[in-house]
Amino acid sequence: MNNRREDIPLLVEKFLEDIAQDYGQPVKKIDKDALKALQDHNWRGNIRELRNVVERLIILAGEKIKLEDIHNYVISK
Predict the structure, then answer these.
(1) DSSP 64
(2) What's the whole-model pTM score?
(3) Of 10, 26, 28, 75, most Cβ neighbours within 10 A?
(4) Please, what sign has the CA dihedral across residues 70, 74, 75, 77?
């Protein structure tokens, strides 16, 4: 997935919508910095790994997903 980094923002937005619908919750927003961190991350897995990370962020983050959440729950500092 590292060679398709430009697709990551669209995928994240789609996952935010789909997962919110699955949980019957409103769609969470994500800060630009947090989205950029996901886009810059060296993904070794496939698209399912990204979806799982977005789901984890939805569950663990506050009302809006921030860069701090990415560092706390996804990417080690």
Answers:
(1) E
(2) 0.88
(3) 28
(4) positive
* CATH code linked to domain 2-73: 1.10.8.60
Phi, psi of 64 (to 5 degrees): -130, 135
Domains of the chain: which residue ranges? 2-73
Q: How far is CA 23 from CA 16, 62, 74, in A?
A: 11, 15, 21
CA distance 63 to 56: 13
In order of 3, 35, 41, the CA distances from 75 in angstroms are 19, 12, 8
